[in-house]
UniProtKB/TrEMBL annotation, chain A:
Pfam families: Fer2, Fer2_2. GO terms for molecular function: 2 iron, 2 sulfur cluster binding; metal ion binding; oxidoreductase activity, acting on the aldehyde or oxo group of donors. This is (2Fe-2S)-binding protein. Residues 7-83 form the 2Fe-2S ferredoxin-type domain. SUPFAM superfamilies: 2Fe-2S ferredoxin-like, CO dehydrogenase ISP C-domain like.
TrEMBL record, chain B:
The keyword Metal-binding does not apply. It holds the Pfam family FAD_binding_5. Residues 1-222 form the FAD-binding PCMH-type domain. One of its GO terms (molecular function) is oxidoreductase activity. Keywords: Oxidoreductase. InterPro entries: CO_DH_flav_C, CO_DH_flav_C_dom_sf, Diverse_Substr_Oxidored, FAD-bd_PCMH, FAD-bd_PCMH-like_sf, FAD-bd_PCMH_sub1, FAD-bd_PCMH_sub2, Mopterin_DH_FAD-bd. Gene3D superfamilies: 3.30.465.10, CO dehydrogenase flavoprotein, C-terminal domain, Uridine Diphospho-n-acetylenolpyruvylglucosamine Reductase, domain 2. It comes from the Bacteria. It comes from Streptomyces colonosanans. This is Molybdopterin dehydrogenase.
From TrEMBL, chain C:
This is Oxidoreductase. Residues 1-18 have a biased composition (Low complexity). Residues 28-140 form the Aldehyde oxidase/xanthine dehydrogenase a/b hammerhead domain. Residues 1-23 are annotated as: Disordered. One of its GO terms (molecular function) is iron ion binding. It comes from Streptomyces colonosanans. Gene3D superfamilies: Aldehyde oxidase/xanthine dehydrogenase, a/b hammerhead, Aldehyde oxidase/xanthine dehydrogenase, molybdopterin binding domain. Keywords: Molybdenum, Oxidoreductase. Pfam families: Ald_Xan_dh_C, MoCoBD_1, MoCoBD_2. PANTHER family: ALDEHYDE OXIDASE 1-RELATED, XANTHINE DEHYDROGENASE.
Length: 187, 330, 706
């Protein structure tokens, strides 16, 4: 007997639960865009080669085009629609807006989701391909432009807004670091 | 992409049982290669057994001072792990040189070793390819093969294995553990990939239906002084055109232990044993390094447009070993 | 003084940095692109493309596919609605006949659209399109673009003076061949269109560079009443010349007409390599003859590109020398060879981008041979009038760009000898090149409405493909009305707003600004006369056709100077750009924030063109191997260093706002500056792009063997 080719699933997206029946072929990207009207996540290549569909899965960045929706059940999905806190833009969003970290805007949601994760990955001490000393004792490398570029390289921008994107990520990282310090001081 | 069934496994025995003997079923890990291949029609599974949630996501020290890495450990977690960074830096560098941050968060160690070649003919079902459709031909030999194999290929297939991680694992004598309905088994990575010959579609020695459960790295003090260098056609987010994992121990100016493996030159991560043999006991200097590279590359059979890889790999051997030598003498 | 952006007006919005008016929508994911708008009863179309490069369709086995789950219809040459492609479009040229989809059984290139499968879901449509069996009668194809082709057709030639005798009289001669590969636009947003019939009107929600342009083509192609077609394109995820009328809109309109429900057709990234247009590969021969002091006696630039068997498209590489340099004998020609390939199209700086790579590399070779600084060589050959036309320049501040750029880049300290500088494993070098791109304007219409609440609404069928057009129009209108920009709301991307220039040819912002300025100024005058605004608002419309026709004939161009520093590891072949600087004289800069971004973006295209981009056509199949973004490399973050772009004051005296246009000038000369820097680093000339690691390695071996 042929196995069922669709399933009823519940997806947890931006803190809300969505119950739907999905064709197993449906990627998380298509489920977001075509079933749930969450079209902020963009389809650039559908093959994991551009990063336009970057979302956060359980807090880590991932490409939604290679993630089957049925396999995303039980995981926390954060899309660009869930990055801001209500009306208040996330520091990364604000920096992209202020520093013109985009042109056509199509790669932007992916760049922003990726940047949010890059700042967290760096803070967690993850090394990158350009980190000189990767021993854990060396601690996190300074988040230089070179580090940001390498860590953001999974997000293509064909308009070529890379220079201002890197500046925006650096500014947002500084803002977040400052905010945390303030928070600690207050506590 | 054809319709398919989907089941999620919660333990290894269950996963292996779910897959059963069905040749049309596949294990789904991170999906970064399989789902892409399903979209391009290269893979058309009838069922997927999702193994991402199996309890194989640990990295543990072994009694002999090595590491055992679970099959569902993500590339990111592998590269961020403190012990891996201390003991096998080349492995960390190899993993970080691969793909992108997003893909490394999704991709798993088991899946990495089973990923398929990125040969453009293999990935396009409208074109012939002996690896995809045995007997249909290899258009790369006469066509676009700039990034194809110079070692160990055959007239049936000249594709290269795309893994970076696998190159470092090969250098450090990794052993693969797997599970079938018959029980568990092990395969050294050097025996894991089959020779190309006239069966390029048969890629690994893994028994049918087997699930990779982990990779064990034996203790290798030399690996603490290792590095991975990758050359590609852009600075990041691209497959290698040539890469090298190298580790070097020198005593009194003589090579006491050396590990060398090449990426993007063959259908599998290429352990450069001839070069290692030539180096062990030799003086640690540029001349020996070059001679060792030549010893390995004597077997190279480049095609019309990929002869540069011989030069590239020779230069990489000399450059990376020289860097390691300089570091050691600091 | 380099960042002055022209005289200020009452409000001074133009010339000061403004963040994008749609910026918040773009950073929150609220901006809806063509494939993002929901429609009830939406059906999904998936194109099936030919697997042969030339031949005849024997049969389309649609019966089996029609029985698959969710499949609604299969359109192909035997059942698709008929269209008429025998017309002249608004851009004054006939359409590429390949947009007349499914009209006959001929296959004219690999990846030719042979059918559209429409189904309830995209998963169903995709599987059915892949399962669709099409039988072909295959014929031998010819896709070989290799140097000299006796069947090449000279299309566009200028000749002045006796070339051979001037070359013979020259103290120094450069004679070299340069090649550039097939390049693809690859905007991040794939082509997407949704078509539907609503209340007797055809509405197409599309991603394009001009809604009235696409609407006009669809009207003519489907023989419809112009008033019955509306094309909308609110946000566009990049265009670069590739987003005009394409198979996806035509297929969507056909299916929506047949099914009488909304149908969306989105190209896959892989399909884009066959049906979205591309830049032809080029083979260019340049001969320069000069006196010992570098003065040019002879300039000969002959370029060859390919086109399809059914449409003549010229990549006018040889045009760049008609503007940049004069010579006693000055010959240029563009030739075309017809092959079994898709028709190429405009791609960012068509002609100038590959043409400047060849010409500006040759100038660098001439400077080397003459022992003259490359900038001094260009200064020595600065023409007073158009070298071919004899017309005066509207303005030409090329040497000012070089002077300012040289100062900021530190050019004066440069040792011209190659192969001397090293940083670890990297050899370092610097290079420069000139750039130019035509400045033009095209007729447009606009409407500006004053509302009783004190706000204003602009309606113009402009397209914002990432240029910042929406914001630029806001600023220009605000200045013309002498109000603050937050009182101006701009609506674009709707063919119902009337004819307007497309986002192309670096002419969009200038053409639209002219139209909105004309309307807004008249509106301001009317408001000044009688204070009353009726409840429905007071609207003034403009049409710039007459004003633009009245422009005096001049050589009108933007100019620039490009500088690059590269690092080359000759043992691995890796090339990295370490820094770039571009100084431009490109008219009045409307919004420095977005303009700088766009100029830098063009320069990044130059990096990508110099080092990465190349689509390899497989001679056996006639199609591509590796047609995706892993096989076709564009520059990533890691490939792009800090790049600076700036400008000298250069307002166009004949434009109401002073604009020239900046969309394309950034790429022109950029690849040459990088290639020249690679020579300076290594002593090896790379005359074929991209400068791949294997080419650097192989060239290095050749140099050692010499």
């Amino acid at each position: 007997m042929a196995p069922p080719t669709s399933s009823a699933i519940t997806l947890n997206i931006n803190g809300e639960k969505y119950t739907l029946s999905v064709d197993h072929r449906t990627t998380l990207l298509d489920a977001l865009r075509e079933r749930l009207d969450l079209t902020g996540t963009k389809k650039g290549c559908d093959q994991g080669q551009c990063g336009a569909c970057t979302v956060l899965l359980d807090g880590r960045r991932a490409v939604a085009c290679l993630q089957l929706a049925v396999s995303a059940e039980g995981r926390e999905v954060t899309t660009i629609e869930g990055v801001a806190e209500g009306e208040r833009l996330h520091p990364v969003q604000q920096a992209f807006l202020d520093l013109d970290g985009y042109q056509c805007g199509y790669c932007t949601p992916g760049q922003i989701c990726s940047a949010v994760a890059v700042i967290e990955e760096h803070a967690a001490g993850w090394p990158s391909a350009v980190t000189g000393d990767i021993r854990p004792e060396a601690g996190p490398p300074p988040l230089t432009a070179e580090e940001i570029r390498e860590r953001m390289s999974g997000n293509l921008c064909r308009c070529g807004a890379y220079v201002s994107i890197v500046q925006a990520v650096a500014r947002a990282a500084a803002v977040e670091a400052g905010a945390e310090e303030t928070g600690e001081a207050v506590a | 992409m054809r319709e398919f069934g989907y089941q999620r496994a919660s333990d290894v025995a269950g996963a292996v049982a779910l897959l059963g003997a069905d040749p049309d079923a596949r294990f789904l890990g991170g999906g970064t290669n399989l789902v892409d291949l399903m979209k391009t029609g290269v893979e058309r599974p009838s069922r997927l057994v999702d193994v991402r949630e199996l309890p194989l996501d640990r990295i543990e020290s072994t009694q002999d001072g090595g590491l055992r890495i679970g099959a569902t450990v993500t590339n990111s977690d592998l590269a961020a792990h403190a012990e891996v960074r201390r003991r096998y830096p080349a492995l960390v560098q190899a993993v970080l040189a691969g793909a992108s941050g997003q893909l490394r968060n999704m991709a798993t160690v088991g899946g990495n070793l089973l990923q398929r070649t990125r040969c453009g003919y293999f990935g396009d079902v409208t074109k012939p390819c002996n690896k995809r459709v045995p007997g249909s031909g290899c258009p790369a030999i006469e066509g676009d093969h700039r990034n194809h194999a110079i070692l160990g290929a055959s007239r049936h297939c000249v594709a290269v294995h795309p893994s970076d991680m696998g190159v470092a694992l090969t250098a450090f004598d990794a052993v693969i553990s797997y599970e079938t309905t018959e029980g568990s088994g092990e395969l050294p990575l050097c025996d894991f990939y089959l020779p190309v010959g006239d069966t390029p579609h048969l890629e690994t020695a893994l028994p049918p239906g087997a699930l990779i459960t982990g990779v064990t790295l034996p203790s290798a003090p030399v690996a603490a002084r290792s590095r991975y260098r990758k050359v590609r056609e852009r600075a990041s987010y691209a497959f290698a055109i040539g890469s090298i994992a190298a580790a070097l121990d020198v005593r009194d100016g003589v090579v006491s232990d050396v590990r060398l493996a090449f990426g993007a030159v063959a259908s599998r991560p290429w352990r450069a044993r001839a070069a290692e043999r030539a180096l062990t006991g030799a003086r640690a200097d540029g001349e020996s390094f070059a001679a060792a590279a030549d010893a390995e590359l004597a077997a190279a059979e480049p095609l019309i447009h990929n002869g540069y890889k011989v030069t590239l790999m020779r230069n990489l051997v000399v450059a990376v070993l020289s860097e390691l030598l300089e570091e050691a003498s600091r | 003084m380099t960042t002055t952006t022209g005289s200020t007006t009452a409000t001074g919005s133009v010339g000061t940095a403004h963040t994008r008016v749609e910026g918040r929508d773009k950073v929150t994911g609220a901006a809806r692109y063509a494939g993002d708008l929901p429609f009830s009863e939406l059906a999904h179309g998936w194109l099936a493309l030919s697997t042969v490069a030339r031949g005849r369709i024997r049969s389309v086995e649609s019966a089996a596919v029609l029985g698959m789950p969710g499949v609604l219809t299969v359109l192909h040459h035997q059942n698709a609605p008929r269209v008429d492609s025998d017309y002249i479009g608004v851009l004054g040229v006939p359409p590429d006949p390949t947009i007349a989809l499914f009209q006959h059984d001929r296959v004219q290139h690999a990846g030719w659209p042979v059918a559209l499968v429409v189904a309830e879901t995209s998963e169903q449509a995709r599987e059915a399109a892949e399962a669709l069996v099409v039988h072909y009668e295959e014929e031998p194809h010819d896709v070989a673009f290799l140097g000299e082709r006796p069947d090449a057709n000279p299309l566009d030639t200028t000749e002045k003076g006796d070339l051979e005798s001037e070359l013979a009289a020259s103290a120094v001669v450069v004679d070299a061949e340069y090649t550039t590969p097939e390049e693809h636009h690859n905007p991040m947003e794939p082509h997407a269109a949704t078509a539907r019939w609503e209340g007797g009107r055809l509405e197409v929600v599309d991603s394009n560079q001009g809604t009235t342009w696409v609407a006009d083509e669809l009207v003519k192609l489907f023989c419809l009443d112009p008033a019955s077609v509306r094309v909308r394109s609110e946000h566009v995820g990049g265009g670069f010349g590739g987003k005009g009328v394409r198979a996806h809109q035509v297929a969507a309109v056909m299916a929506a007409t047949v099914l009488q429900r909304p149908v969306r057709v989105v190209m896959t990234r892989r399909q884009m390599f066959s049906i979205a247009g591309y830049r032809s590969p080029t083979a260019q021969r340049i001969r320069l003859g000069a006196d010992a002091d570098g003065r040019l006696r002879a300039l000969d630039h002959r370029s060859l590109n390919l086109t399809s068997t059914v449409y003549e498209f010229t990549e006018p590489c040889a045009g760049v020398g008609r503007v940049l340099y004069d010579a006693d004998a000055h010959h240029t020609s563009n030739r075309v060879v017809r092959l079994d390939v898709p028709t190429p199209t405009w791609m960012r700086a068509p002609g100038e981008a590959p043409g400047s790579f060849a010409l500006e590399s040759a100038l660098d070779e001439l400077a080397e041979k003459c022992g003259i600084d490359p900038i001094a060589l260009r200064a020595r050959n600065e023409p007073e009038r158009g070298p071919v036309s004899g017309l005066p320049f509207s303005s030409r501040r090329l040497l000012d760009c070089f002077r300012e750029g040289a100062r900021r880049f530190g050019w004066a300290d440069r040792d011209p000898r190659p192969g001397l500088r090293r940083d670890g494993r990297w050899l370092l070098g610097t290079g420069t090149a000139a750039s130019s791109f035509p400045a033009g304007a095209a007729p447009s219409t606009a409407a500006v409405t004053a509302q009783p609440d004190g706000t204003f609404t602009v309606r113009i069928a402009a397209a914002d493909i990432g240029t910042g057009a929406r914001t630029a129009i806001t600023l220009v209108t605000a200045d013309a009305l002498e109000v603050a920009p937050d009182r101006v709301r701009v609506r674009i991307g709707d063919s119902d707003f009337g004819p307007a220039m497309i986002a192309g040819g670096s002419m969009g912002t200038r053409s639209w600004a002219w139209a909105v300025t004309t309307a807004a100024r008249e509106l301001r005058e009317r408001l000044a006369l009688d204070a009353g605004i009726p409840p429905e608002g007071l609207t003034v419309r403009s049409d710039t056709s007459e004003a633009i026709r009245a422009l005096a004939h001049k050589e009108r161009h933007s100019f620039g100077a490009q500088f690059a520093e590269v690092a080359v590891d000759v043992t691995t072949g890796e090339v990295r750009v370490r820094r770039m600087l571009g100084i431009f004289a490109a008219g009045r800069i409307v919004n420095p924030l977005t303009a700088r971004n766009q100029l830098v973006g063009g320069m990044i295209w130059g990096i990508s063109m110099a080092l990465h981009e190349e689509a390899v056509r497989d001679q056996v199949s006639g199609g591509h191997a590796g047609a995706d973004l892993a096989g076709y490399h564009v520059a990533t973050h890691a490939d792009v260093p800090l790049i600076e772009a700036d400008w000298v004051d250069d307002p166009d005296p004949d434009d109401p706002v002073g604009i020239k246009g900046i969309g394309e000038i950034g790429i022109v000369g950029a690849a040459a500056a990088i290639a020249n820097a690679v020579w300076h680093a290594t002593g090896v000339r790379h005359r074929s792009l991209p400068i791949r690691p294997d080419r650097v390695l192989t060239a290095g071996e050749g140099a050692r063997n010499v």
